[in-house]
Write a structure and sequence with these properties.
With 190 residues, this protein is an alpha/beta fold. 58% of the residues lie in helices and 13% in strands. The protein has one domain: Rossmann fold (3-Layer(aba) Sandwich).
């Protein structure tokens, strides 16, 4: 089974590319969705988050952690280990089921041991103005959007670590063409 590691900064189009991969039959694992499940359903993680932050509500957590690097590091130390375990378990299930390819979508993939599970790293990059506009469309104010972008690995560093770069500022048709070409190249290598 080929595993694509998909990353990029907030607002660049990772979820769009992930959806395009699903359209191609690729099983996708969204690490953010897994983190939400862990935050709400894993008793140990839930208790530790409530003890440290006093809340489990995503918006309240975001307000705290994206303005305080130490708080972000604390939240990641609580969530990342069980999230990694769950992602690895899902990959094992997909492999056992005979899946041809899988995709791990994770904003912090390059900083994660999950990177070792990937055959290729794909980075979705976009112009900062496009990312800020997309975040505004989601209802995020400009200050909060800039704070989130500031807490992420730079696009340049992500692009430098990529096996393939997808242009998230391109048209949907152009982006789909890039995704299809990259996927065909990946699965043609045996």
């Amino acid at each position: 089974m080929k595993v694509i590691g998909l990353t990029g900064n907030i607002g660049c189009g990772k979820s769009t590319v992930s959806g395009m991969l699903r359209d191609l039959g690729v099983a996708t694992i969204d690490a953010d969705a897994v983190a939400r499940q862990v935050r709400m359903n894993d008793g140990v993680a839930r208790r530790r988050i409530e003890e440290r932050f006093g809340t489990l509500e995503a918006g309240e957590l975001a307000d705290v952690v994206f303005s305080d690097p130490a708080a972000l590091a604390d939240l990641e130390a609580i969530l990342h280990p069980p999230v990694r375990d769950e992602v690895r378990a899902r990959l094992a299930e997909l492999m056992a089921a005979g899946a041809e390819a899988a995709c791990i979508e994770a904003i912090k993939l390059l900083e994660s041991p999950l990177l070792d599970a990937c055959d290729e790293t794909w980075v979705v990059r976009c112009d900062e103005g496009d990312a800020l506009a997309r975040l505004a469309e989601r209802g995020m104010n400009h200050e909060a959007a800039r704070a989130r972008l500031a807490n992420q690995t730079s696009q340049a560093d992500k692009v430098a670590a990529a096996d393939r770069v997808i242009d998230g500022s391109a048209t949907m048709e152009e982006t789909r063409g890039q995704v299809e070409a990259a996927y065909e190249a990946l699965i043609s290598v045996r």
